[in-house]
Amino acid sequence: MFTALDSETFLIAPGNLAPTMVCVSWARDTASGVVHANDPGAFEIVAHAINEGHTIYANAPFDLAVFARKWPTLLPDIFKALDEDRVHDVQTREKLLDLARGTFRFEEDEDGKIRAKGYSLFDLALRRLGRKLDKDEWRMRYHDLWDVPIEEWPAGAIDYADSDAVSTLQIFEAQESLKKYLGNATAQVRAHFALHLMACRGFRTNPEAVDRLEVMVRERIDEVRADLEEIGLVRPDGSRDTKTAKRLMVETLGDEVVFTTKGLDLLKKMEKSSKQLREDANFISLSEDSCVLSAHPHLLAYSTYTRYRNLLTGSVKHLRRGVTTPIQTRYEILMETGRTSSSAPNVQNLRRAPGVRECFVPRPGYVLIACDYSAAELHTLAQVCLDLFGESKLADALNEGIDVHALVGSQIVGIDYADLVALIKAGDVESADARQLAKAANFGFPGGCGAKRFVGQAHGYGLNIEIRDAARLKATWLRAWPEMRSFFDYVGKQEDDRGFYWVKQLRAERLRARCTYTSACNSYFQGLAADGAKAAAYEVAKAQRCGAPGPLVGTYSLAFIHDEIIVEAPEETAHEAALALSAVMERAFNRFVPDVPTKAEPTVMRYWSKKAKQTWDGDRLIPWEG
Fold it and tell me: Is the same domain home to 14 and 50?
């Protein structure tokens, strides 16, 4: 039995991402209906659908959270349905279908122009059903009907709610003919629910820490601005001269220049040549990664100026709000490689400035637990190689507990591994630099980048090397991990007749088409790491709400940072919660890397910081104080 469910609620507001439900609409076969949330029949309809069959949604995490707020006793049933792959989301399914055909987020219209593609219910109804849903005046006004019996509702209010459920069911049915391309759709829904629950809880911030950050940011802006004004990249009024910056970017990188998303799509469509795009400033990227890749001192300064300006106008504003209202980031569950993203604010990629993370604090009586995987993407890379070729030197080294950065570093300087480790422990700077260079290689080269692009990436590790040295480094790296030659050959063979590449994600059956060579390389191991980390986020959320009695009950996940989960726990049980969090995360992730299992190390802290270290009082973890 397949039933589409949809809720209409009070308006979403800061601090309230699971607002009060006003009505629930349903559709099954050719029948449908709308029931007021205060009607006892509403619970019966929702509970029966969730317990007895499959439920379908457009934005399942939102509706499930709304149901759980209205009827908390329904939570175990929701998790059971999720576990049994009985919860479906037409938006997630459509994204997976677009990934499989290479049209994720963008498509070509009848005139051959590239335009952004949306995934709202309105967008999907138009795309799948050829139907334009009526944006009725009641769409944002259901709170006005909270105290009104449903038999007295205007026809438009009932019709809008009913059509949402009916359209959701019909879109699902239209997608079913393509279900072989849906990969791990229900697993994505599970993870999305867990991340939405994190967002509903939200972070708090420390006002004194926010004050300190703002002072530092303003000082840094003033320092960088003077030099940039002098060279013409910033105008006297403080605005940036992007045209001049883009010209400098093209002069510096030439053929290696990074294009915007729209520019890349035009390049793929061959509507413009690379040379034409370089001549059109609209398509040149000035992102921080692009500036780092250029390694040009003026562009690096420009990037710093941009970063701190954005900090002041964006992040500081969000952080200030978190003093009184929880900061609730919005998660996008599925990007091209299978990873997630977040926005408003982007907690997964906080601005690179000291003091930003330190603004985030737990609620009174709680502490934070940060638990992250050790070298997650190296473990997934090794597992991919084992799955594809049956052997991996990287897997052997990881399983033996070898420091793989030091191992490559020892080959860079030409000494034994044990000797390099001893020199690093003794404080030898040259040996530590060799390990850092090897670390950049281990995380940079698997994505298929060449020597020239690696030079820019190395800058992010504080390293300045020449192209010739980067080429030699890659040769050394390939000698350390010979399976990578087979990996690159394998990816190269996935090229289609248009010069694009496709990926079939291992252990998830997710497809990705029409991507560049480097994107394809990254997808294999980044996607596998994302699948493992998402599964862990879900299992943690379930243990927090359905694990009684258990050490994670009474704790709350606050943020998902790709390979790290931040949890808020009562201080008196933080030690037990930290160990339980680590165990759940390892068990879930290692299902995806069974031959190269990794560890998840927990740290208890008073505030969020990358500097935090495990702190012990005898045999108990206690909060790191800073």
Answer: yes
Who's near 581: CB < 8 A, 6+ residues apart? 369, 371, 540, 552, 555, 565, 567, 600, 602
* pLDDT, tens digit (0-9, with 9 covering 90-100), for 493-531: 999 988 899 999 999 889 999 989 999 999 999 999 999
Closest CA to 375 of 624, 596, 611: 596
Directed axis angle between helix 75-83 and helix 517-546, to 10°?
140
CA–CA separation, 11 and 139 (whole Å): 10
Global pTM reads 0.90
Separation of alpha carbons 341 and 550, rounded Å = 30
**Displacement of CA 160 from its chain's centroid (Å):** 33
List the structure tokens of 505: 């994600």
3-state percent helix, strand, coil for the chain, nearest multiple of 5: 55, 15, 30
Same domain, 16 and 123: yes
Please write down the HEC assignment for all residues of 48-100.
Answer: HHHHHCEEEECCHHHHHHHHHHHCHHHHHHHHHHHHCCCEEEHHHHHHHHHHH
Q: Classify burial at 243, counting beta carbons within 10 Å of its beta carbon; exposed 0-12, middle 13-18, buried 19 or more.
A: exposed
DSSP 8-state code for residue 312: I
Banded pLDDT at 290 (limits 50, 70, 90):
confident
Determine which helix (DSSP H) or strand (DSSP E) holds 330, and give its type and residue range. Answer: strand 330-332
List, edge to edge, every strand of the sheet that includes 600-605. 556-560, 564-570, 366-373, 600-605
Nearest-5° Cα angle at 558, 319 to 328: 45
From its phi and psi, is residue 183 left (phi > 0), alpha (psi between -120 and 50) or beta? left
- Tokens 């990358």 locate to 610
Task: Quote the pLDDT of residue 69.
Answer: 97
- How many structural domains comprise the chain? 3
Domain that holds residue 236: 207-322
| Amino acid present at 215 | V
Q: Do residues 159 and 46 both lie within one domain?
A: yes
Paired residues of 204 in beta bridges? 361
In single-letter form, the type of residue at position 383 comes to: Q
Which residues partner with 331 through β-bridges?
Answer: 342
User: Domain with 39 in it: what CATH number?
Assistant: 3.30.420.10
Cβ-based neighbour number of residue 622 at 10 Å:
16
Q: Mark whether 171 and 44 lie in a shared domain.
A: yes
- Please give the average per-residue pLDDT across 139-162, as a whole number: 93
When mean pLDDT is compared over 301-310, 319-328, 449-458, the highest value belongs to 319-328
Tell me the C-alpha to C-alpha distance, in Å, between residue 464 and each of 295, 352, 431, 544, 593: 9, 19, 16, 46, 34
CB 143 within 8 A of CB 22: yes
Q: How far apart are CA 138 and CA 144, in angstroms?
A: 9
CA gap 408, 403 in Å, rounded: 9
Q: Could you tell me if 229 and 163 lie in one domain?
A: no
394 and 283 fall within a common domain: no
In this structure, what token pair is assigned to residue 133? 């849903």
Residue 226's pLDDT is: 84
